[in-house]
Sequence to fold (366 residues):
Amino acid sequence: MFLIDIFKILLNILYLPFKLLKKQNKVLFLSRQSNVLSLEYKMIIERLNKEDEQIKVKVITKKLEKNLFSFVSNFFLLFNQMYHLATSKVAITDGYSIPISILKHDKKVIIIQMWHANGIIKKIGLQTLDSRGKKGKKLALKMNMHQNYDYVISSSNETSKVFMKAFKVSKKQILNYGTPMLDYIYDKKNDKSEIIKEKYNLGNKKIVLYLPTYRKSQINYDEIVNNFDFNKYQLVIKNHPVDHNRIENGNIIIIDKYIAEDLISIADYVISDYSNVVFESLLCHKKTYCYIYDYDLYKKQFGFNIDLKKEFNKYSFTNFVDLLKEIEKDKYDFKFASKFLNKYVANFDGKSTNRIVDFIIKKINS
Fold:
């Protein structure tokens, strides 16, 4: 841990010359979630360019890998991030960013956390410290995990409560604007159902879409396959991007090339678990179910903000056979589901991106 202290001191010393550089009317987008520009970042950038062409945009998206070559590339990446953090007026991140949390920034740099989910079922950020073990918790605190945010974008008052704990921010720092993904779902022009159905020759069977979240253990595919009625329904699965659980079965169609929000459009029924796509599925008015067979284990490993057994009890199942029986009834209670949805997603009007961009421009011009 002593080496981390040295690393932080050296990094801040190296950062000092960058802080002397002139600030530009620039917005920096940082992400460790992917190596490509995310849909939400793209939507904000397009809106920014439309509103003010004079505002510069810099995107640095890079997943950190652990090998000798990446160690060298990460070193240069860090310097690139430092330069643009020092010379931007606004910086946006969608997860944990080392330079944002460790460096001591000029007060003129506005840092915004735009977490990559709507409605937070499982614990995130600083909420996860106790589940990391003694060594993991100490390391996270040493690395200043989730510090230095000026504002956090939220989708509801309930979600804001989670962010206040997860990022140690006050209510005044919460921007209850909703996220660009809500706008994407809201706009029916983005519906890709016909394209996907044709591409994968999905036929006329009713489609059950399974969207499992990341888990450390193996997914219980045996119970799904052994009980699924393939004669009546088509099962489509999208794997979590960082999950290595895989299944090979000729009756199942695996689609990983489309984002979950696009795949939801093809479904008659959506099955997930602790993933926040549950809310996005409900926003699309899909019959949505939670298959939570490993509820107690997942709770121990990650922890929950939302008790699905209690709040979404009508459509949360630990047994897959019981879930299928509920699908067979085909009498979905959308009134019950909407009550659950509206508690955690309150900004569904197609204007979230506009609110975010207006705020960014205001801060740049102030």
About this structure: Residues 248 and 254 are 9 Å apart (CA to CA). The radius of gyration is 22 Å. The longest strand covers residues 26-31. The mean pLDDT is 94.
